[in-house]
């Protein structure tokens, strides 16, 4: 039984306003969640905040939602999430704000976990029935696009992914070391490099795509050799941000039609042995995605973020079209924990790899680490920076306290 709900305005890592929710149960258990926000937001995501921002959302939840939740003895996770959808009444949570619904939803789940004396990951994995595994961390090493200024790379994220580490700790340290090595390499080049970082902690430098990949490759080779590891390279192109309706726009390179964009990605994959490619094409390009997936999908994760927006209807379409082999999971894209789990289940049933993900504007909340342990093979949450390492360090703690094994992607 929910006894009380507290809502407060806090700030995220970009200094933007967001909400933190606490759900209090009559047993005395408490669950808390605070919601992140994106900069390269997909067209089909839940609307993060109502038009009037956090203040309007707080007022709406106080007046319209809280009275229906407090003392309601019929609530379980599914019913709570259903009720949130009904009260809001829109397709994309535009009245309440998806950041409010997801915060209520996850805070409730965490309160129930505390009531049953389980860590959140254990509660979740008991509910949905997958064997817990520590997810492999995708680290953001060089960053641009919507996460930095015009002087940065045009591609949003240059990533590394340790493929078969002995422990999650080794993998987290590996990404941090690649980040440090990349910083050293960029400083040696000096040209225009100020040491600045983007929203997710990746280095910001005036490089074209291939220059950035060369820096990344050199940095990861040093770490692989020194620590005897196998580290893959990945990209998030966040290509919806580049697509103008007829071409993908590049400032440091030629603009590309869809066919040229696909050729470009295929040649980068050959040259740099890319293991992970997220949003290579626009969010509506299901067919282009399936061309790429049929060429590269045997040895590379082709992951849909804006393509799927954690939405089972869009995922279903992707499965039918064979558009990808991997799904990015961002709980606030869909606005409830039930919606998040439905997306994960649909992916699992079709042998997709799941990647739970942070947003560029994050809080220090570490719930996505628990979601990752319960049900995803990979976690994408940066390599450095307080709001990123809060999640990575939680994985190290869970590893230390349990005998849960680390995932692997021997590809
Ligand atoms: P966002 O970007 O959080 O700014 O939407 C992250 C991503 O595209 O993966
Ligand atoms: Zn993305």
Report on the structure:
By secondary structure, the protein is of the alpha/beta class. Helices cover 43% and strands 16% of the residues. The protein contains 13 helices and 11 strands. The strands form 2 sheets. An 8-stranded mixed barrel has the order 4-5-6-7-8-9-10-11, surrounded by 6 helices. Helix 4 (120-128) packs parallel to helix 12, helix 7 (258-272) runs parallel beside helix 8 and helix 12 (367-375) crosses helix 13 (386-401). The longest helix has 22 residues, at 168-189. It starts with a strand and ends in a 10-residue tail after the last helix. The mean pLDDT is 97. Zinc ion binds at residues 236, 238, 278-279, 305.
Short overview:
43% of the residues lie in helices and 16% in strands. The chain starts with a strand and ends in a 10-residue tail after the last helix.
List the helices and strands and how they pair.
Layout lengths: L1 E10 L5 E9 L4 E5 L18 H17 L7 H12 L9 H18 L4 H9 L7 E8 L13 E6 L5 H22 L19 H19 L3 E6 L21 H15 L1 E5 L7 H11 L4 E4 L7 H10 L4 E4 L1 H4 L2 H13 L3 E5 L9 H9 L2 E3 L5 H16 L10
Parallel strand pairs: 4-11, 6-7, 7-8, 8-9, 9-10, 10-11
Antiparallel strand pairs: 1-2, 2-3, 4-5, 5-6
Helix pairs in contact: 2-3, 3-4, 4-12, 5-6, 7-8, 12-13
The protein binds 2-phosphoglycolic acid and zinc ion.
Largest beta-sheet details: 8 strands, mixed, barrel
Shape annotation:
globular
Distance between the termini: 47 Å
Tell me the number of helical segments per DSSP (H or I, 4 or more residues long): 13
* Rg value: 21 Å
Give me the side-by-side strand order of the main sheet.
Answer: 4-5-6-7-8-9-10-11
The residue-averaged pLDDT reads 97
Helix fraction? Answer: 40-55%
Strand % is: 15-25%
Number of strands: 11
The sequence of SSEs as H and E is EEEHHHHEEHHEHEHEHEHHEHEH
Q: Report the bound ligands by name, code or SMILES.
A: 2-phosphoglycolic acid, zinc ion
Q: Name the structural class.
A: alpha/beta
Low-confidence stretches: none
Domain Enolase N-terminal: 2-124
Binding site for (2R)-2-phosphoglycerate: 156, 330, 359-360, 380
Function: Catalyzes the reversible conversion of 2-phosphoglycerate (2-PG) into phosphoenolpyruvate (PEP). It is essential for the degradation of carbohydrates via glycolysis.
Binding site for Mg(2+): 236, 278, 305
């Amino acid at each position: 039984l929910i006894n009380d709900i507290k809502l407060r305005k806090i700030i995220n890592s970009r200094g933007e306003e967001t909400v933190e929710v606490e759900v209090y149960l009559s047993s005395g258990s408490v669950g808390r969640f605070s919601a992140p926000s994106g900069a390269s937001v997909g067209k089909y995501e839940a609307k993060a905040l109502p038009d009037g921002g956090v203040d309007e959302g707080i007022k709406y939840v106080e007046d319209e939602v809280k009275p229906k939740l407090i003392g309601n003895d019929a609530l379980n996770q599914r019913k709570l999430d259903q009720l949130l959808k009904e009260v809001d009444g829109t397709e994309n949570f535009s009245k309440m704000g998806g950041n409010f619904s997801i915060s209520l939803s996850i805070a409730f789940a965490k309160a129930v976990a505390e009531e049953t004396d389980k860590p959140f990951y254990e509660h979740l994995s008991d509910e949905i029935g997958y064997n817990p595994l520590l997810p492999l961390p995708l680290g953001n090493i060089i960053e641009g696009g919507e996460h930095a200024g015009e002087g940065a790379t045009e591609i949003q994220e240059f990533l590394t992914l340790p493929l078969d580490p002995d422990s999650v700790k080794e993998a987290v340290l590996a990404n941090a070391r690649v980040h440090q090595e990349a910083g050293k390499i960029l400083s040696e080049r000096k040209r225009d490099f100020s040491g600045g970082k983007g929203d997710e902690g990746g280095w910001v430098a005036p490089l074209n795509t291939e220059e950035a990949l060369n820096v990344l490759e050199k940095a990861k080779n040093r770490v692989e050799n020194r620590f005897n590891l196998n580290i893959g390279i990945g990209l998030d192109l966040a290509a919806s941000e580049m697509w103008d309706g007829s071409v993908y726009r590049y400032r440091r390179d030629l603009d590309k039609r869809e066919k040229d964009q696909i050729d470009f990605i295929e040649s980068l994959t050959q040259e740099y042995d890319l293991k992970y490619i997220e949003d290579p094409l626009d969010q509506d390009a299901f067919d282009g995605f399936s061309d790429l997936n049929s060429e590269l999908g045997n040895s590379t994760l082709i992951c849909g973020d804006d393509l799927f927006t954690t939405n089972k209807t869009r995922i279903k379409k992707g499965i039918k079209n064979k558009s990808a082999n991997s799904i990015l999971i961002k709980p606030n894209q869909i606005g409830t924990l039930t919606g998040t789990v439905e997306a994960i289940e649909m992916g699992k049933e079709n042998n997709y790899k799941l990647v739970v993900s942070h947003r560029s504007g994050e809080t220090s909340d570490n719930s996505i680490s628990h979601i990752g342990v319960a049900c995803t093979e990979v976690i994408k949450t940066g390599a450095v920076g307080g709001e990123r390492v809060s999640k990575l360090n939680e994985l190290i703690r869970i590893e230390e306290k349990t005998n849960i094994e680390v995932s692997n992607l021997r590809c």
